[in-house]
Amino acid sequence: MAVTLTALDVMSDAPVIPVIVLTEVSQAVPLARALVDAGIRMLEVTLRTPVALACIEAIAREVPQAVVGAGTVRGPADAQAAAMAGALFVVSPGYTHALGRACHDLQLPLLPGVATASEIMAAQEDGYTALKFFPAMQAGGLAMLRAWKGPFADVKFCPTGGITAANAGEFLALDNVLCVGGSWLSPADALAQGDWPRITRLARQARELKA
Ligand code: 3PG
To answer: Are 28 and 60 spatial neighbours (Cβ–Cβ below 8 Å)?
Structure first.
């Protein structure tokens, strides 16, 4: 990995970026260890629960093999909070120039969410060319990514939303897709039960999705 982490590095490390929702701080470190044990190091902890920032802090402090990022970053304040907690990258469901500027100023790699050509153009204007396609299945799936290859040949995508172990391979086969995002590596029931071996198994299968 480069000394200065870029969004492209985040998207190139493994075929899947796990989208993680944690309800207990105590889940954070064992989950991160279960994922990195399988070679999944880029971890997106979504800012959807009251404990999310504390979870990011715990992983940043205690799991040095992990590269922890924050997801569901919806504006500059979220990005600032994520950076303070130790997030090394951020992922957003959509894109605004304010968020793009804030991440640039914080020197925080951003994977901005896009679902339309205009949103891709707005992100590109601000220098972002490694983008999250969200919500991928609902917004056009494989066909949309194929259509974007013509006008946006220089853009790489991380489709997220509705991606599963069953359909991830089809997305990863597209040459404008570097990785996919998905919540299937950290199922709520496995987290609640502390079933870390199951999470490592899911992550190992995910790691093998792309040669
Ligand atoms: C999300 O925002 O929750 C992500 O897009 C994950 O979606 P998924 O649960 O369909 O993988």
So the answer is: no
